[in-house]
Design goal:
Layout: H1 3-15, H2 20-24, E1 36-40, H3 42-45, E2 54-60, E3 70-72, E4 79-85, H4 86-98, H5 110-125, E5 128-132, H6 134-169, H7 174-195, H8 206-213, H9 216-225, H10 235-250, E6 258-264, E7 268-273, E8 276-281, E9 285-290, E10 301-304, H11 311-318, E11 322-328
Parallel strand pairs: 2-4
Antiparallel strand pairs: 1-2, 1-5, 3-4, 6-10, 6-11, 7-8, 8-9
Helix pairs in contact: 4-5, 5-6, 6-7, 6-10, 7-8, 7-9, 7-10, 8-9
Protein name: Polymerase nucleotidyl transferase domain-containing protein
């Protein structure tokens, strides 16, 4: 067990004059006796403040209908208890282990599902185990050794996905392109921080993570990431700087088998009007394309990371009609 994490937990309960038994008594046992209880969250990661709550993640035998936290305030402390069924948790870990990221086929919804799975699983793997059966304590310890690779792959894919979005948006919505370039750099810095021991899976603490690492170079890059240009004229230079930094932090990533995949975003439809087609999304926005265009009908458009996109594909992406993913091809 990381002594720093354990010390933060003990410091938190001491501040509120709580015993470990009192903390465990806050767990709802309506779904059965806990198989594992882990203290997690910003308090354990070392980023909590006087208003932060202590998260207790509990595993029980049966499935749980809801994972909404149950809040309690013993002695004024803020404790959120979250319960998860054992099979649900085992399935999430199995999926994270068996599906290499990026996958061979990525669809809208896959990114959100993966992010949620990593968020949940890392809470268990990087928290402080308070109680549990021998089997589940051993499971938690094995999990702690596995989460690093999952987070590294996740952040690398997000960095390249945001970089591709920034390039495609530059000619259409330059200010948005600047924001996406900053997002790409932040993802790369998250991967860097995790590789150096700051593995808490919450982007909002990135600056604090880099400060704790004492990494002045990364902090300078972070300041650039959160300060995109306010003028469209400054965006091209900003993108060049961001891409140079991305190479610094992602140079070890093997992207030779990666491809960008663009698919119709949810709610996007095509209607034919002779020689032209109307592409609309949710009936709130529309674009006109030629029937002979590469985007004249729904499809999937795939490119290498460095390949120039078809102009109409790029234009529809700029209108938020296409969803961008990264997938892997067999060599």
């Amino acid at each position: 067990m990381d002594d720093a994490r354990l010390g933060r937990y003990q410091g938190y309960i001491k501040r509120y004059d709580l015993t470990e038994r009192q903390v465990l008594d806050e767990i709802d046992r309506s779904f059965g006796e806990p198989l594992l209880v882990v203290a997690a969250g910003s308090v354990i990661a070392g980023f909590g403040n006087n208003t932060s709550d202590l998260d207790l993640y509990t595993v029980v035998e049966d499935d749980v209908a809801s994972t909404l936290p149950l809040m309690s305030y013993p002695n004024g402390a803020r404790i959120d208890a979250i319960t998860c069924g054992s099979q649900q948790l085992l399935d999430r870990r199995s999926e994270l282990s068996s599906v290499k990221w990026p996958p061979e086929d990525m669809k809208p919804g896959d990114i959100g599902a993966r992010r949620k799975a990593i968020d949940v699983i890392t809470r268990y793997g990087l928290g402080v185990p308070l109680s549990g059966t021998d089997q589940w304590i051993a499971w938690q310890q094995r999990l702690e050794a596995e989460v690093g690779e999952w987070m590294s792959d996740w952040h690398a894919v997000e960095a390249y996905r945001m970089q591709a979005a920034a390039r495609a948006l530059l000619a259409h919505k330059p200010l948005v392109a600047g924001i996406r370039a900053g997002d790409a750099l932040m993802a790369a810095l998250e991967r860097h921080a995790a590789a150096h021991g700051e593995s808490y899976f919450k982007w909002k603490w990135l600056g604090e993570k880099l400060e704790r690492l004492g990494d002045s170079k990364a902090l300078s890059a972070y300041e650039q990431a959160v300060s995109p240009p306010l003028s469209a004229l400054d965006v091209p230079h900003y993108l060049e700087q961001a891409e140079s930094l991305l190479h610094t932090y992602l140079g070890d990533v093997d992207t030779s088998s990666w491809r960008l995949s663009l698919q119709p975003a949810v709610g996007t439809s095509w209607e034919s009007f002779g020689k032209e087609h109307i592409v609309s999304r949710w009936g709130l926005r529309a674009a006109v394309v030629s029937a002979k265009s590469n985007v004249g009908k729904p499809s999937t458009w795939t490119y290498s990371l460095s390949e120039k996109w078809d102009a109409d594909v790029e234009a529809l992406f700029g209108e938020d009609m296409l969803w961008l993913g990264v997938q892997r091809t067999e060599r």
